[in-house]
Amino acid sequence: MNTSGWLFDIYPNRLNGLTLWLIGDDGQRHCFQHKFPVSFYAAGPTHRLRALWKYLSEYPQPVKLSRTERRDIYTGLIPVLACEIPNPAALHALFQQVSQAFPDLTYYDADIHPALRYAAATNLFPLARCQVETLGSQVQTIQTLDTRWELNPQPAPLRTLTLEPDQDPACRTPTSIRFQYERCAYTLTLQPARALLINLRSILDRFDPDLLLTSHGDSWLIPWLAEKSRELNLPLPLNRDPAYEVITHKEHTYFSYGHIVYRSQQSQFFGRWHLDKHNAMLWSDYGLEGALEMARVTCLPVQEVARLSPGTGISAMQFVTALQTGVLIPWRKAEPEKPKTALELIRADMGGMVYQPTIGLHENVIGIDFVSMYPGIMVHFNISPEVPRSGAALEPSTLQPGLVPQTLAPLLQKRIAYKSALFDMPRWHTLREKYKARSSAEKWLLVTCFGYLGYKNARFGRIESHEAVTAYGREALLRAKEAAEELGYEILHMYVDGLWLKKAAKPQPEAVRRLLEKVADRTGLPIALDGIYRWVAFLPSQLNQRVPVPNRYFGVFQDGSIKVRGIECRRRDTAPLLSKTQTGILQILAKAPDAAAFGTLLPEVQRFISTQQRALREGRLPLEDLILRQRLSRELDAYRTPSPAARAAQQLAALGKSMRAGQSVRFILTRGQPGVHAWDLPTQIDPKTIDIQRYQTLLQRAIDTLLNTLAPTAPQPNIFDLPPCPEPHQQPLKIY
Amino acid sequence: MPYSVGMDTLIEPSPAQWHLLVLPRALRNRFLSGLGVIAKKKPLLVLDGGNQFNAYLVSRSVRGRADILNRIRVSRAFTCYQMVALLHSLPQTTNPIVCLDFLATFLHESLPVHERQRLLESCLPHFARLSQSAELIVAISAPKVTLPETNPFLDILQNAAAHTWRPEMPAPAPEPPRLF
Amino acid sequence: MGRTLPTATDLLLQEQESFARFRRALRRSDQLALDDLFVSARQHLAATQYAAHALPFEVMLLSMLLEEHKLVIRLQRQLEEMTRRLP
Fold it and tell me: Residue A374's pLDDT band (boundaries 50, 70, 90)?
């Protein structure tokens, strides 16, 4: 039988091979099995490999063994023992035993996600258009009709059922759930639970959704439904595949890049997708469309990629490239750094170039940015762990592209293609939102790939490559600076991949074009205009007005749009009152065609500030505007002096709500002890206890950040205490 | 070749033996400066297991002399697998070798403790091998709190080392008597 | 895999602290002038970092001197301008 459609789900089945689900062109959901043997490899001294061979020949399940040669990315072709089993589901258990019995051997391709192995073998990925030939339910051949890099693929007709509890379960127990499927919506009360389950079952049977999109499904709803289903002995067809139970992974905390990261529990289905809007990476940034794009380019299943960090996505992409090009994927990263001299270390151990800005208000400023600088460098200059570096000469490599550039190049190209399509697309175009979401997903992957290159556990990470990228980045920035200065520009600020320049005259399009061309020519990297600012203010440190601070500025482009970095309204922990006040002030100032016009706008700014201050003083602000939000940097009992966030978390913990390191806590500042009231407490906060004074101080500081640069305070007194200048020949000159 | 650590401890490594140095945090900088002094006479190899090699400190101790700084080679290990691979691949040499904060990568809890112990034990034959021809000092950070139960990894190293040095900060000079 | 070496900003703070005893024994107005010298060095941290000099304090001193020189030139020009305008 021949079926065409979209590949929907893949997972190992318990018997043999993989289970595939297809959304057929015929409107049906098809379930097939595909025989898919998988291998891992072992390397080491010959006598040990022989012992492993003997061990595996006696293994209860059949393991096909062979001696062969494969490529290690660092050492080249090496002899390995290949171990193949027909059942991907059994690999994990087998490998556990082998690695414990023979811990001294080096292993490859041991813990690769089956979806990635499948993608490497067949070029298939989530929602790929494909054609399948089956005998019964066994796949004979499968062909892809699609690529991961397609900008506008034919969308699959996904059937989506949304489930929303009426309350946030973290604050109060929900009383009802709203179900929506296309135009039908039902609200069912949680009690009696039996009726809810029966109704849910009939909804699932009737609509057979592909995707269950929930709010708080991971943290509460699905586990609650699963528990009730067991209690009342009412099975729920959450999985389409009846052979499986819904998998719920427990919550856990781990350490990454010096921060504590918290992963809540999650529930995933078989043959159906469950996505929780509140537990999906960057959902607010790119939504379902972005999650689908992530799955498409990384080849990871949608349910998993939506919950994992972009670093896992980049890693997956590298694995697919490695599998397809015959490069072994090491189980444990072990390649050490080649020794450097102390001087070489001083030269190499640096980050991106960060120029101190020229503090103050500037007009007619040009902002230019390298487009995806670090990924661009990795691709254009062939930075990869196995490619030897010739030096920081910024010359394109003549060698074969390495694993890392091979992986990144099509992703970079696709992102650039989306950006240029969006540039020309009118605002009302139907594809606009989709393209923005997909482009955003790719941006996150690209942003992560550089950090990932230097990550100690990254299989193909290497510190020398990481350092090479920053070295090229600094070189590129300096060449851009030189090109701009040769054209008569003054450099105001540089920050890793962006420059701010100005000349005396107002920038003309022709001059800007010449500047960009010259920079692109000198550096070999694509550079784009971020915008021309009517005016921009680079801000000093809050502690000392003379100390410049990188990446802390606000400005208005020629088209009236505002750009802000590094101040309160950009930070996620700021109370909305402060963000709204700063944004409000900026919106008024944005009306000024140039800095000279500020004077006319200042009265309006003052009126706005007074309104905000009065509203705060008179207690007329909605409580939501006063919420501060901070992450817990450690477990509650590890605090010596609890931070405000920790004190708020303690209040929640006293009511049985556990707060883990890495979670963020919302609270309002109150007078006296303990000085905070956690926002998620069931008791309403008494407005009279709010610490208005502290908020006034915070508000004033946020206002001063903006206004001090625009209307500088009285000039500082002469701090050098110099006496009046002596008459010449009358007093010896004092030297200070 | 004596190694200076603290005011009154001088380590004299002996041939075909390696020494364990339990270094308190307060003496770390002084130890690093001492490495610069060693490099004045002989090329030195540093295996950094804890991201500790502050090249600027070392540089200052030799007044920035490039010829001396170029005689110190550093290799950083960020996982215990890397540290093991580093030791495994080191050729026999006569130049002194110093391991900095050696245990740091073995204390990462992401790996089960028995695996980390196995890896640590696999380093010992390499210490023995390398110390046949080169002076070898393995420095580890002194634990912040001395626990009633012993630290198994420290024990493993102590039992294999020819000698364990535990320098202490010299007692602060007594306060001069106040006039008023 | 994190950075191993202190950044130029860290180094500047360390150098500043190493002069704490010297600073303490200065008059208050001199203390402010000394602090201002270190602020001058802060204007050129990017170049100090990039220089990768084996003795970064020498580059910081050069940065302070650079700012002083700029001030002298500015004052010189102002003085010339004022003298030119005298009747």
Answer: very high
Res A286: pLDDT: 86
Domain for residue B115, yes or no?
yes
For the stretch B75-85, pLDDT in tens is 999 999 999 99
Q: Cβ C5–A346 below 8 Å, yes or no? A: yes
CB atoms within 10 A of CB A418: 24
Please determine, for residue C1, whether its predicted confidence score (pLDDT) is greater than 70.
no
| Of the candidate ranges A245-259, A292-306, A550-564, the one whose mean pLDDT is the lowest | A245-259
DSSP for residue A330: B
**What are A42-69's pLDDT values in tens digits?**
999 999 999 999 999 999 989 999 999 9
pTM as predicted: 0.87
Cis peptide bond N-terminal to A593, omega within 30: no
Complex-level ipTM = 0.90
In a domain, C74, yes or no: yes
Scanning C17-46 for CB atoms below 8 A from B yields none
Domains (ranges, CATH) in chain A? 2-144 (3.30.342.10), 160-209+211-271 (3.30.420.10), 348-566 (3.90.1600.10), 628-689 (3.40.1820.20)
Identify the residue with better confidence: B173 or A358: A358
What pLDDT score was predicted for residue C83? 94
Domain that holds residue C16: 8-85
Which chain B residues are Cβ-neighbours of C2 within 8 angstroms?
Answer: 51
As given in the structure block, the two tokens for residue A41 are 């490899």
B177 located within any domain: no
Give the domain CATH number at B121. 3.40.50.300
Chain A environment of C70 (Cβ under 8 Å): none
Flag whether C78 is in a domain: yes
Is A350 within 8 Å of C45 when comparing Cβ atoms? no
Compute how many other C-beta atoms are within 10 angstroms of the C-beta atom of residue A711.
Answer: 12
Give the mean pLDDT of chain A.
Answer: 88
Q: Torsions phi, psi of A3, nearest 5? A: -130, 140
Using CA atoms, how far apart are residues A395 and A382, in angstroms rounded to an integer?
A: 10
Strand order in the sheet with A628-631: A628-631, A664-669, A676-678
Q: Note whether A548 contacts C: Cβ–Cβ < 8 A.
A: yes
The domain total for chain C is: 1
* Residue B39 lies inside a defined structural domain of this protein: yes
CA A4 to chain centre: 34
Establish if B170 belongs to a structural domain: no
Domain containing B116 equals 3-165
